[in-house]
Amino acid sequence: MWNTLTKNIETFLGCDCEYEEAKAVLFGAPFDSTTSFRPGTRFASRAMRGDSFGLETYSPYQDKDLSEIAVFDGGDLELCFGDTGKALGQIEAFADKILEDKKMPVMIGGEHLVTLGTVRAAVRHYPDLHVLHFDAHADLREEYLGATLSHATVLHRVWDLVGDGRIFQFGIRSGDQSEFLWGKEHVTTQKFNFDGLEETIQSLAGKPVYVTIDLDVLDPSVFPGTGTPEPGGVSFLELLRAVLSLKGLNIVACDVNELSPVYDQSGVSTAVACKILRELLLTVVPASK
Fold first, then answer.
1. pLDDT tens digits for 46-59?
2. Is the pLDDT of residue 130 over 90?
3. Which class for 262: exposed (0-12), middle (13-18), buried (19 or more C-beta within 10 A)?
4. Which residue intervals of 52-130 are DSSP H helices?
5. DSSP string, 167-194
6. What is the per-residue pLDDT across 199-249, written as a single tens digit (0 to 9) for each?
7. Structure confidence at residue 6 (pLDDT)
8. H/E run at residue 242
9. Is residue 14 in a domain?
10. What pLDDT sits at residue 289?
11. 88 in helix, strand or coil?
12. What is the C-alpha separation between 276 and 282, in angstroms, rounded?
């Protein structure tokens, strides 16, 4: 018979330290109100927490264990689905508190627009912020169906904050022609793959970096559980190598987004998302000892 009872709180695998000792704070932003094709990313963080316990805390790719880093899982934000601007403000305020406490925000989306909320907070603390963007889609539209706040416009809105020469995109293989024409003047885009990533990382040495990973950068044969699947994507190992190459960068915040678990009943897409998040955490969060 137990003498005491404690709250049963489900966290992402290994992310169960106390807030005060954490170097990074994981949180979910379950928002998909501007999704242009198939909704469902609001369920990603919940699915990833549950399925993460099918993984090991140890990474044979890095010979590191989640027990060696201090990550606090702050759960999911309760976001306003009826007001996109208000939802972004809630994300921004939460990320700002984490950064104010000298910790790294690590966000699970949600659709890709949620990135804007955390970037807004990061730019306030790091005016020289640079952005690494892995995605199938350019997300550079000025507006989509009359809306300037959309998962199709998110990187244009990020550009509004950071300006020219600060956004580096990889894996891009979809977008309106006008996006690519505009992008040539304002951002650096590597279509289809991660060629040139190593040189980009070298150029970002010592600068504050935000990393945003839209998981549909992966080929749908690897990752079908997403709202806007785009054939011709990278493999799991290619994305893994890209994540591992981030080691040593001054990453101040990051996110993983666009898992929509309802479109892959096998659970493989969720397992892929969990594994990428595990490797990202082990790459960007410094050891706690």
1. 999 999 999 999 99
2. yes
3. middle
4. 84-100, 114-125
5. EEEEEE-B--HHHHHHHHHHSEEEESS-
6. 999 999 999 999 999 999 999 999 999 999 999 999 999 999 999 999 999
7. 58
8. helix 236-244
9. no
10. 61
11. helix
12. 10
| Order of all β-strands in the sheet with 208-214 | 71-76, 24-29, 104-109, 250-257, 208-214, 130-134, 167-172, 188-191
Q: Is 165 exposed, middle or buried (0-12, 13-18, 19+ CB in 10 A)?
A: exposed
Q: Report the distance separating Cα 40 and Cα 111, nearest Å.
A: 9
Does residue 1 fall inside a structural domain? Answer: no
CA distance 157 to 173: 20
**pLDDT band, very low/low/confident/very high, at 129 (cuts 50, 70, 90):** very high
Residue 82 — very low, low, confident or very high, per pLDDT cuts 50/70/90? Answer: confident
Structural domain of residue 205, as residue ranges?
Answer: 19-284
Query: Are the C-beta atoms of 273 and 259 separated by less than 8 Å?
Result: yes
Q: What is the full DSSP assignment across 133-151?
A: EE-SB----S-BTTBSSST
Distances (CA, A) of 139 to 5, 154, 167: 47, 6, 12
Residue 12, in any domain of the structure: no
How many structural domains is the chain composed of?
Answer: 1
| Phi and psi based region of residue 17 (left: phi greater than 0; alpha: psi -120 to 50; beta: remaining) | beta
Which residue type is seen at 140?
L
152: tokens are: 């199709």
Q: Domain holding 131: CATH number? A: 3.40.800.10
Residue 193: inside a domain, yes or no?
Answer: yes
Sign of CA dihedral 149, 152, 155, 159: negative
Calpha distance 14→54 (Å, rounded)? 12
